[in-house]
UniProtKB/TrEMBL annotation:
It comes from the Eukaryota. It comes from Pyropia yezoensis (Susabi-nori). This is Uncharacterized protein.
Length: 310
């Protein structure tokens, strides 16, 4: 039984990741932290760890910015966000380096998305007269939406094929996804966190945080002159194309294969990523070949929080 579960988990990982290569150091660490926090949830107080704007701002409980993304409402919530994390984080870490990606995630996305969600709650209360600031939201999906925006923009993806049903411009895909998730469970999704993630992602791509982003030389010094993701890959005997890049500029050109093993060239140097990548999304990179790994979305249509969930 345990062996069958393990085999299923390995197959699922390959389907989501696009290869059997273990995730890099930071991506693995965050995944372990998510699972560990969920396992310890019976011993923890969700109300003390969630993002409650009234406490965040009114009582300056800033720690909530870091704890809320780690907490999940139930096993399904955790599974959806974990799959989305594995769909995005390893490729982003391998492209930019562990230090740069860790800074992007926990120094920029996590606090800024939390502050954006809290600000949205206060704005809604001021306009509508509700008490949204007293709500409590948990989950990583706000950060995942920010990652999705950055990933799509920095890889030069121009269009997204959704479930093989229709193609839409990649620029509008995160916003459309947030809307669809909200329609699937109205009133039970922390829409403010999703929109804050999209806004922070767009601002990141535009270079708004360059003044607090370390230079490539600083990142290299912290990592000992070599991206930790590359060292992790070598330790596992894997060959990976890892290029260090500043977290404020575009990723280097990184080529991987999907689980189906096919990357097909499509006219004018464009690359279509399909087949064995993410089960819901195939993408097409713009001419110039800046794309190279499957771009995946934080499929959170099953995000059903009580009472507020990200």
């Amino acid at each position: 039984m345990i062996g069958e579960v393990g085999a299923f988990a390995r197959r699922a990982y390959v389907a989501v990741r696009g290869s059997a290569v273990p995730p890099p150091l930071f991506s693995s660490t965050v995944l372990v932290a998510l699972v560990a926090t969920y396992l310890a949830s019976p011993l923890l107080s969700a109300s003390a760890l969630c993002l409650r704007p009234a406490d965040l701002v009114g009582h300056l409980q800033l720690y909530r910015l870091n704890t809320a993304p780690l907490v999940h409402a139930n096993l399904l919530h955790l599974a959806v966000n974990a799959v989305a994390w594995l769909s995005l984080a390893p490729a982003m870490e391998e492209a930019s380096g562990t230090g740069a990606f860790a800074h992007l995630t926990f120094s920029l996305l996590v606090p800024l998305v939390g502050l954006g969600a809290a600000s949205a709650a206060y704005a809604v209360d001021a306009v509508v007269g509700t008490h949204t600031v007293g709500g409590c939201s948990v989950g990583l999906s706000g950060v995942l939406f920010g990652m999705l925006v950055i990933h799509l923009r920095r890889t030069g993806v121009t269009s997204v094929d959704v479930c093989g049903c229709f193609v839409m411009p990649a620029r509008w895909y995160p916003l459309a996804l947030a809307g669809l998730i909200q329609l699937a469970a109205p009133g039970r999704i922390a829409l403010g966190a999703h929109l804050a993630g999209i806004a922070v992602g767009e601002a990141t791509v535009a270079g708004a945080w360059g003044w607090i982003t370390p230079t490539p030389s600083v990142v290299a010094a912290v990592e000992g002159g070599r991206p930790l993701s590359a060292a992790t890959a070598d330790a596992n005997g894997r060959q990976q194309d890892v290029r260090s890049a500043s977290p404020s500029n575009s990723y280097g050109s990184v080529t991987t294969t999907t689980s189906g093993g096919d990357d097909e060239e499509v006219g004018n140097g464009e690359k279509e990523v399909g087949g064995g990548g993410h089960p819901l999304v195939a993408t097409t990179a713009g001419a110039g070949g800046r794309g190279g790994w499957p771009s995946r979305q934080p499929g959170e249509a099953t995000d059903l929080p009580p009472p507020g969930r990200r």
